[in-house]
Amino acid sequence: MQIANRMQGISGSAIRELFKLLGDPAIISFGGGNPSKACFPSETIRTITDELLREKSDILLQYGATEGYMPLRRAYLDHILPDNGLHGELENVLALTGSMQGLDLICKAVINPGDVVLVEEPSFLGALQTFRVAQAKLVTVPMHTDGVHADELEEIVKKHRPVVFYTIPTFQNPAGYVTGAKTRKKIAELAAEYDMLVIEDDPYAALRFCGEKEPTIKSFDTSDNVIVLTSFSKTISPGLRVALCFGNKDLIRKMTIAKQGSDTHSPNLNQAIVAEFINRGHMPAHIEYISGVYARSAGVMTDAMAEHFPEWVHYEKPVGGLFIWCTLPEGWDAQELFKRAVERKVAFVPGAPFHTTEGAGLNTFRLNFSAEPEERIREGIKRLGDLLKEMAEEK
Ligand SMILES: Cc1ncc(COP(=O)(O)O)c(C=O)c1O
Q1: For a pocket test of ligand 1, which of 167, 207, 229, 233 has the largest count of ligand atoms closer than 8 A to its C-beta?
Q2: Distance of CA 206 from the midpoint of ligand 1 (Å)
Q3: Class of the CATH domain delimited by 5-41+284-394
Q4: What is the DSSP secondary-structure string of 317-379?
Q5: Per CATH, is 62-279 categorized as 2.60.120.10?
Q6: For the segment 155-187, what is each residue's pLDDT rounded down to a tens digit?
């Protein structure tokens, strides 16, 4: 059987492989980016679903529009986007089966094989995989603790002329860092100057523990070259697979055509649940609640890290999102640490697969703090700390 060129040399995502491990309940997992089970608004969803099925099953169980369920697109335009300083029309909006689908549709609409796509290093594995399947040539810009640096970005854009810059500006996956407002403005300016599409992927922005929220890159966009991906996976439920994008009407139209040939439309019932959740005003209190839960979990993890990790493990205290990025001294291999940690029933994600540059990030790893209860966070970090000390002695 022939396998297409676009799939040659593409391996499965390290995280997806990790999910196999999560089947063992004894494993304390700091691996995936799963929201806490305790944060699912199950009761509200049950009430909404009952009512929707009683009153609208004729519409919701039928085929729907590729563009998305109208009340969801409206709720996005009327509530979610204005909260982020953004305004637009229905033609700027497309409902998605997860923001992962948005990345895939953007690739189908925009990327030709060999085109340069600029990504942060490190960056989200799912996005890297999608760009690779699209046969893009990946070029990287370094992430720093204060996000992407405007001068480095400009130099790379000038040199490589990327068709797309993919960025996760707030509580980045995997690093957890935030790109500042000045750089966000500069990114929008570069998008205009170099006619580059910027994908602003922002699934974590609502999960802020303290401080003021940053303006979106899109709010500085004068050339209509920035597309925003908004996912409800981290705020409501990843299993619903509901997300939306907001961008240039012509691009949205091309993505809609690509979606027609992909899944026809996203599930109506799931879109309607999210629309009702927003329209009934549940979002602000729910976000406040889950941000509080994650802030506490992050605190438990960093307190445990301060107690058990050797001082040569570098990390920043998170102010939002779901992740802590750790850097070990040069010469350490986080993959080796991972293998030994799994023997002690602790999992995390080694950092190398988040990198595009060959051999980069071997001494890095990502910890997630949202999926495990507090006692298991403390216990898992203690086990990891003990292992790090043992491995340092062996060196
Ligand atoms: C940066 C980023 N984008 C997109 C996604 C996927 O989101 P969705 O569940 O909406 O497909 C994730 C999930 O971890 C992510 O971290």
Answers
A1: 233
A2: 14
A3: alpha beta
A4: --SBSSEEEEEPPTT--HHHHHHHHHHTTEE-EESGGG--STTTTTTEEEEE-SSS-HHHHHH
A5: no
A6: 999 999 999 999 999 999 999 999 999 999 999
